[in-house]
Structure prediction request, 251 residues.
Amino acid sequence: MSNEDFVVISDISFQFGEQLILNHVELSLKKGKSYALIGKSGAGKSTLLNLIAGFIQPSQGRVTIGGGPIKKSKGNTAFLFQDLGLFPWQTVMEAIMMPLLLKKEKNREKAKEQILVLLKEMELESLKDKYPHELSGGQRQRVAIARALISKPELLLMDEPTSSLDSMTKEHIQQLILAQQQKLRTTLLFVSHDIEEAVFLGEVILILNKNGTIQEMKNPYFAQKDAKEQLGFYEACIEIRKSMNMELPMK
Ligand SMILES: Nc1ncnc2c1ncn2[C@@H]1O[C@H](COP(=O)(O)OP(=O)(O)OP(=O)(O)O)[C@@H](O)[C@H]1O
Prediction:
């Protein structure tokens, strides 16, 4: 383990009944880097995210975060799962305030100031008093992302952060996520079905293989301005798609 290793997955195996999902996985996530986890449907991506979140326990092996057990790092990990988990009775401001209150931030005024800065950066300022049913899908997604980021997590786990959005909204939200991830130097692990999203947002691409192991690829297009305009971006997407198809026949 090097100094920079923040999340360390050592010899993790996981089964649902007879079905082996993860097979002796070894993986290190470095502090402040961004990782895209891709693989065919049913390969076990969400399972791996749930293991790192500590929601389920591995059949074998262990996960450490910041050198210690998962439960010690709970306060510094944020999650964004497919069900955004916004409560219908909370306004945007109240929803984003919640993690700060849970962290026992006593000074409501100070918390509000902090939230207003983030709302501005996430282009949500004018929506602060709205309820979820008054927001579009993309706006709800941005609120959930802002709520995950407000406590400046050291680790952010996201399951398909921009699924079900149109491509323009997707790209906009991806840019906002990237800006925040780089500003906070958060270690980001996200699951995606969208290869372009993986290549745009992931400094490292992790492909979950058919045999329950992980293949790691460095992504030369990560965080380059106008990455999608550059020659090679789509070629990189094609290469990754090819690797997935070679490695991952449908289960
Ligand atoms: N609670 C459960 N009990 C039994 N099997 C499960 C359970 N949850 C998931 N599985 C199985 O484990 C495998 C991996 O599921 P997982 O949701 O991790 O895959 P995934 O790669 O995230 O899929 P997708 O891309 O479709 O979301 C699948 O075959 C799924 O049917």
Observations:
- The first strand starts at residue 5 and ends at 16.
- The chain has one domain: 5-88+155-247.
- The chain is about 35% helix and 25% strand.
- Residues 16, 21, 39, 41-47 surround adenosine-5'-triphosphate (CB under 6 Å).
